[in-house]
Amino acid sequence: ETSTEQETKTDREHERILNEIETTDTAFIGASLRAVYEGNDHAKFLDRLDCRIKQHDRDIERMCNFHYQGFIESITELINVRSDAERLKNQTVVINKELQESGKEVARKSDDLIQCQLQQRNVASAIEKLSMCLPVLQMYAKMCEQMKAGRYYSALKTLEQLERTHLPLIFQYRFCEIMSNNIPRIREEIKDISMKELKDFLESVRKNSDKIGMVAMKQVSLFLAKDMKFQQSESEKPQIQTAILKDVIPSVSPDNTTKSSLGPEKDLSASDLVDFSPVYKCLHIFGLVGSQAQFETYYRTQRKNQARLVLEPPASMQDNPDAFAKYFYQIVGFFVVEDHVLHTAPNLISRQVLDDLWEMALSKLVAVLQTDSVYCSDAISMMKVKNLIVIFADTLKAYGFPVSRLFGLLMEMRDSYGEILLKHWSKKFMEIFDEDNYTAMLLDNEVEVKALLETFPYESPGFESEKYPRKLPFSRFVPRIFGEMKRFILSCLEYCEDLHLSSTEVDDMIRKSTNLLLTRTLASSLQTLVQKPSLGLTELVQIIVNTTHLENSCQHIEEFVHSITGVRVGSAHSAKLVGVSTFKDARNGTEEQPILYIGWFRSCNFWDGTTCGRASRYLLDLIAFLQHNFEVFTNLPSKVAQTACMSACRHISARLMELVLDKDIKVVTMAALQQFNLDVMQCELFSNSEPVPGFRDGALQMSFVELRQLLDLFLSWDWSSYLADYGSGNSKYLRVSPGTALTLLEKIKEERGHRNIFASLSKQEREKKKLLETVVRQLRGIVNGKSIPV
Question: Which family does it belong to (predicted)?
Fold first, then answer.
């Protein structure tokens, strides 16, 4: 039963496969054949396939037998019709030949007529189309001519009219398509050409910026010159302003060639020196093609880059005004061009853009000037740079640019200029001091007297009636120093000119600079002078006399400053010159200088512990030296001589006190104090001998009072009186301070501690030691602010 079912299933499967083969396209029977080969009954399937083939063959044979008779009849009818068809064909050929022969002439005439009508229609159409195309071609030719003539803006306008008006009417023609395709290329070509012209313009402007700036600054300098001449006609100071003017105008042009080339250009403007047409053309062309924003961005970017290049300073500007001038010319030329573009093509750059560019330039310029102007080592170069900056600022101010920072910079440079002047005048002062002979001047004739009075305001009763040669109390450096001070003031005034300062501000600056000259430069030079070891006492005395006359001439310096500034001393904003105090300090320093000759006695040994019964040798030599030199002081004013003598005594007293209290001296013996007492007595004898007349009684002796009271206290060992009367105005030892007494007492105590130990066994020595310790303890209590124990 199982075998039967299997066979039935196989038969059904073979039947299905055969049905698929019969109903499926031959190209897709692969799947059915695969199913056959996947089974195991290949032979059985082949048998069934053969049976199916035989069945189909029988069906075909049966169908052919059924239709055979009808086929035979159809063939017979077709054979009969073939003869009739052949006859009809021959007749048709004959008729067609006859018809062709009869209609050949008609056809020819008809073709001629059609051809004529076609030609007529074509001519009319061609005339119509040509009448439409001719303006286009004429306009295109016109545009080509404009391109050749360099009239690019007109060519662009023609191209725009051609594109918008004429070409749309005849767009169907091939040449119109070619034209339409060429229009963008022509526009780009015009843009490229105009851009090239703009680049050439930018390059030309960059190369000619210095020339444009030079012309602009020259015009401003000429205007200032005219204005200054007008002011001079109403001013009381024409000489000074004229001198300054002569320095301002030449400083604009660095060389003679430049100066001569500026002659015919003094009335030129930026548009006369540079052709701005490429800018306007490019602006209009880019605006016409819709790329104005692109052009504006490109122009501003390029000019900003050029501004950065212009603002880069030359490699070497130190002491080189020509380099500064060329640098300023380029900057002025750049902004003159930009200002011209702003006013003639306002759509290209705005005021804000130009102001931002100026702020960037101003910041860079100030930084450069703050750095490079410091390297000007001489006043002439610095003044030329200052004048260039003034004209540079005035030029840009005339074009509407804010320049207040530049004038602020000039005020800062004023300090550097002042330092340069001070260094220069310091050298001049030292040269004058080195060349002076430090002897009173002698005037042999009226010419020399007149020459002196022109340089120095000397006044003395009876001077004009004296006989020649007339002797002056001061040496030659007095009028020379006075003249240099006036020249310094004029140099300061020269810098202040053209800075748009009020007379009060100018006066204040001049006075401050003059005070620096007096307090720093001249005072330092005088101090260096008097400290020269080569100067003798006679020269020092002459220097004292000279400083006295310079001190008396300070009021004439005040009057000179007033004459050039117009501001009187004592006004609300006027500072007073400190010349009097400066020369007074210098004279005081000079008066103390002779006292320094006694400084060598510091190396002498006081504390050898022996006494010779008289003053020390070094002190006797010192006093002999002072007595000899004080005789020279008879040429000095009495006050000066007295001051020098008093200073000498006080100096000796102070040095002797320093030696007593010197920390390096640990032990002082009573024998040394006795010797020291003899030295002080010798000093007192010297002060009593009145080495310089004119002192009040006891005035000079007061210099040694402190030493005398200190020695009396220790030599008499009168501690009970000192301690009892301490703090009282009637004390015998009023000038002896507890600290001084304690210091010297401890040195004596230390000396006693170094004595032989057997001396301490004496009752008297023990009492002295006890008393000494008691006094030391009480002095320490006073020094520490405690009351004296009872």
Answer: Belongs to the SEC15 family.
Instruction: Record the tokens describing residue 70, joined without a space.
Output: 């009808």
C-alpha torsion angle, residues 36, 40, 42, 45 (rounded to 10): -70
Average pLDDT over the chain reads 78
Tokens coding 285: 């062309």
Helices 670-688 & 705-716 angle (0-180, nearest 10): 150
**Domain range 417-598, CATH architecture:** Orthogonal Bundle (1.10)
Residue 326 near residue 392 (C-beta atoms within 8 A): no
Which ranges of 399-438 does DSSP label H, i.e. alpha helix?
404-435
HSE on the CB side for 216, CA within 13 Å?
A: 33
Calculate the alpha carbon distances from 710 to 1, 679, 715 in Å: 163, 14, 9
Domain ranges of the chain: 173-227+271-401, 417-598, 608-752
How many residues appear in the chain? 790
Q: Please choose, from the candidates 631, 662, 635, 660, the residue with its C-alpha nearest in 3D space to the C-alpha of residue 645.
A: 631
The Cβ-side half-sphere exposure at 646, using a 13 Å CA radius, reads 15
- The type of residue at 200 is D
Measured between alpha carbons, how far is 370 from 781 in angstroms, rounded to an integer? 63
What span, in angstroms and rounded, lies between the C-alpha atoms of 510 and 605? Answer: 55
d(CA 577, CA 560): 12
366, 385, 651 from 378: Cα distances, Å: 21, 11, 44
Q: Between vectors from CA 555 to CA 549 and to CA 557, what angle results, nearest 5°?
A: 95
* Cα separation, 697 vs 475, whole angstroms: 36
In sequence order, the 6+-apart residues with CB closer than 8 A to the CB of 540 are 530, 590, 593, 594
Instruction: Report d(CA 539, CA 541) in Å as an integer.
Output: 5
Q: Which helix (H) or strand (E) holds 183?
A: helix 174-234
Residue 577 pLDDT: 67
* Closest-CA residue to 500 (of 368, 408, 380): 408
Distance CA 513, CA 520 (A): 10
Most confident of 706-710, 747-751, 765-769: 706-710
Position 253 scores a pLDDT of 42
Contact 420, 517 (CB under 8 A): no
Omega before 469 within 30 of 0, i.e. cis? yes
Question: By the 8 A CB rule, do 17 and 35 touch?
Answer: yes
CATH superfamily of 608-752: Dsl1p vesicle tethering complex, Tip20p subunit, domain D (1.20.58.670)
The first and second tokens of residue 585, run together, are 């300090």
Q: 3-state class of 443 per DSSP?
A: strand
Q: Torsion angle, CA of 342/343/347/353, rounded to 10 degrees? A: 30
Query: What string of DSSP letters covers 457-501?
Result: ----TTTTTSPSSEEPSS-THHHHHHHHHHHHHHHHHHHHTTS--
Q: Over 90: is that where the pLDDT of 176 sits?
A: no
In Å, how far from its chain's centre is CA 267? 34
Pairing label, strands 470-471, 442-443: antiparallel
Closest by CA to 53, choosing from 41, 64, 42, 45, is: 45
- According to DSSP, the residues that pair with 442 across neighbouring strands are 471
Q: What is the pLDDT of residues 616-627, one digit of tens each?
A: 777 787 787 777
User: Whole-model pTM?
Assistant: 0.58
HSE-up of residue 553 (Cα within 13 Å, Cβ side): 24
CA separation, residue 311 to residues 331, 357, 410 (Å): 7, 11, 19
**pLDDT grade for 158, boundaries at 50, 70 and 90:** confident
* Range in 121-125, 722-726, 751-755, 766-770 with the lowest mean pLDDT: 751-755
Q: By the 8 A CB rule, do 395 and 355 touch?
A: no
